[in-house]
Amino acid sequence: MVVDHLSATFAALSDPTRRLIVNRLTGGPATVNELAAPFSISQQAISKHLAYLKNARLIERQRDGRQNFCALNPDAIREVAEWAEGYRRFWEKNFQRLDVLLEEMKRKKQHIQKGKR
Amino acid sequence: MNYSETFKIEPSGEREIVMTRIFNATCDLVFDALTKPELVKRWLLGPPGWSMPVCEIDLKVGGKYRYVWRNEDGREMAMGGRYREIVRPDRIVNTERFDEAWYPGEALITTTLIEKDGNTTLRTTMLMESREARDEVLESGMESGVIVSYDRLERILSSQVAGKRNE
Predict the structure, then answer these.
(1) Which positions 41-100 of A are in contact with B (Cβ < 8 Å)?
(2) pTM, rounded to two decimals
(3) So what's the ipTM on this one?
(4) What domain range is A21 assigned to?
(5) In which element (H, E) is residue A85 found?
């Protein structure tokens, strides 16, 4: 189910290191060494993060000769982007209505205050 | 102020999503709009075609609330929870659970209102109850201090997807 994918995906993206890894991979596939380079944590820790991302289907492992590469899985990425966009639009609409309501409440309050004078 | 400054959705820590929005109104008005059923019903609706036939709020610590939305086509969606903290006019903490949840378990929602120069910043923190995320808390010491907002991530990700499609 889409929902299950999404909760796994969001859990995977809840960590800043993993978000940076995903960010890096938007520039194209990279080796584990290349991904580990910017971080001051062990390669073992990076491998753990990569396994997490792979379980959430956010990345795929690719093999080119003797080299192991990591690459983004566009389907999972699209799912997240669509969910986030939907969530954003949902709240955007609500907040725009709330803006209108607050203007109305302000006018009413001013009206009452004028009446009291 | 441009749009991205007034409305943000971003991840925070291990299990939180933080949403902030600035409103051109005082704190007490925003608090009322968030907690009085006759007002909530007028804005908390989502996409066109949905209405909110049920909006019950028992605004006290331990009190329950329940929201039911109905679409013109007959579909229904409902959620509710309990209030844990209420500090008028700037803080509300409540639990939240959808009848048909898209995330596991319950979420804990902390809402704070900060007024400045007649504008009020609404900040909603959604703490997810997720086993995966909770396990991850144990692996601490990996904070890099760099926060990529979902907004930015979205842009990066959609350009990536578009790039792939064009290949």
Answers:
(1) 41, 45, 48, 52, 72, 74, 77-78, 80-81, 84-85, 87-95, 97-100
(2) 0.66
(3) 0.72
(4) 2-73
(5) helix A74-116
